[in-house]
Amino acid sequence: MREPPGRSASILPKAIGCLKGIATGDAIGKQTENLSREDVSRWYPDGVRGFEGPPGSVIPRYLGNTKRKWRFGETTDDTERTIAVARAILGDREVRHESVGRELLKCEKCVHPGIASLWEFHQEGDPARVAQRHDGCGAAIRVAPVGILYRSHRLDEIVAAAREASISTHGGPLAIAAAAATAAAVSAAVEGAPPLEVMAAARQGAIQAELLWPGSLNHSFSRALSDVHDDLRRREPSPAVIAARYFPNNPLTIVPLALGLATIMESAEASTLLAANVGGDSDSVASIAGAILGARCPETINDEWCSVVEQVNGHNLEPLASQLAALRS
Fold first, then answer.
1. What is the pTM of this model?
2. What is the CATH number of the domain that holds 304?
3. How many domains does the chain have?
């Protein structure tokens, strides 16, 4: 059943905000990806306040990069693969891993041996491939379209669909739990749920995934999610504090931190800048937090950043969000 016309219209700004939050978080966060907190301060003495150079010009720290010279305003595989999942959903009107795989094979960014999950998938070239390992956050980053598609009471389907969107490249238990948590959080945020309910949805999604597809680290993701969120609620988040306590460089800090920020903060713009000034996997944290806060508070998306991202990448995200919102049920 499709969402009634009035309901679809009411969620549309939130769906648009979600996709824009991903893309702007991705592009702003890329400026500091993989930097230590100290190196962020060295490259950006005044902190990251937006795009720290002319749109389309090479980010100085990537001038010597042999893989890719990333540009100011350019989005990464995080946004590219989110769009791929959205296109697969729009083609099937549901989430099928082979269709997702077919769209993912069209993606070109970050396909190199340094990112084993993507490299192995593209080397095999099989859209029906089911990965048996890899616990990185790449799956969680791209599942926002799943959360836009399904209403939050359909948790069983959200969790199953999150796995379908993940297993082409990420089959590890932490990756699946993180993807399920993120998709559930996006779904609740699109419906206008308050922050604690968004976090509760994320926890339920993670726990259900951990029960359905247990691994050697049973429930470690859902525990990390709760621990990080509860701790963040007790302190004023700052780049220095977060870098010291939850530096985002592994599966048990990246997505829990992003979901924690998304449910204790009230601004997609502010969460993006905070993530960028921490460093580590900054674009992933900023993308996931931006997706949820873009849905929760679409008015906090920075329109100037969106214009730069559109100018540099030409994503045209609004029609994608509109079509996904129209299918929501």
1. 0.95
2. 1.10.4080.10
3. 1
Measure the CA dihedral 204/209/210/213, to 10°: 170
CB 245 within 8 A of CB 216: no
Yes or no: say if 97 and 119 are a contact pair by the CB < 8 Å rule. no
Q: Which residues contact 174 (CB under 8 A, 6 or more apart)?
A: 135, 215, 217, 220, 221, 251, 252
How many angstroms separate the most distant Cα atoms in the chain? 53
CA–CA gap between residue 177 and residue 207 (Å, rounded): 7
The CA-atom distances, in angstroms, between 76 and each of 80, 110, 314 are 6, 8, 13
> Could you tell me the mean pLDDT of each successive run of 10 residues in the chain, 329 residues long?
47 97 98 98 97 98 92 98 98 98 97 96 97 96 98 98 98 96 98 97 97 81 96 93 96 97 98 98 98 98 98 97 97
Structural domain span for residue 323: 5-327
